[in-house]
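Throughout this review, each integer encodes one residue's backbone shape. One record appears below.

===
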Amino acid sequence: MHKKIFRVFYHLSKLPKFKRTVVALGVFDGVHYAHQRILKETVRIAQRIKGRSVVVTFWPDPHSQENIYSLNKRLSLISELGIQAVVVLSFNKRLAGLSAEKFLFMLIKRLGVRWILVGENFYFGRNAEGDIKFLQEKSREYNFHLKIFRVLTKEGLPVSSSLIRRLIKKGDIASVQGLLGRPISVEGRVIRGIALGRKLGFPTANIRPEQELLLPSGVFAVRILYRKKRLYGLAYIGSKPTLKTPRTATERHLEVYITNFNGCLYDEKLEIQFLKKIRSEKKFSSLYA
């Protein structure tokens, strides 16, 4: 059996010649329960046939959706499930214009595909011609096994990235956590702000998020992951309406106040896990109200 060394490749032409691969195809944004089911089965089959578990994914999102997670976070979660290699294909005009036939042949040639695992709603290739029926026909032609996963439901809801995006935009923290299997989180680096919080006696860390999708404006109880430490505090998402500046009126910010912490965090990477909403954003009469 191959050693479980996680590797990431960004072009099919840069791949070493793989053999006996079990390939999961998909975007996998959120790496939610339904994705986890596919990825765990990919690992299980690869172990059974003494092959290699591989994910082939796309960046940016072919459907031009706001990202639940950054690519790095997505790769980290995929790695934790035991996948041995990920191929990240740049979704550009060339790839979008490639026929499903050519794309599939390219995969089989470069990866030595024995199995392909997909969700039933997945499709690929020019004009979305690479659907489940196409893969079923080609599995016989190219002699690979195909496993199709039906839509998974949890508490009556279909587990999908699209649903999770809608719930995040609504601010439904509990439902999103149930579908992801983990808290809603945002990763980002601490950047310099105007140090207003420090002047008011509540120093905050200004975060530049690595992903696009944020919860609605408000104040939240959060857990902060920093260098393998678990810290707690409050997070603010919003446009700082009390400041009344043209710049802040059009931008949304993420700031975190960490309880019982006095260190310097500039340029450090944090993961902010949202536990509970405390209140919506408010506009005060002054900074000291």
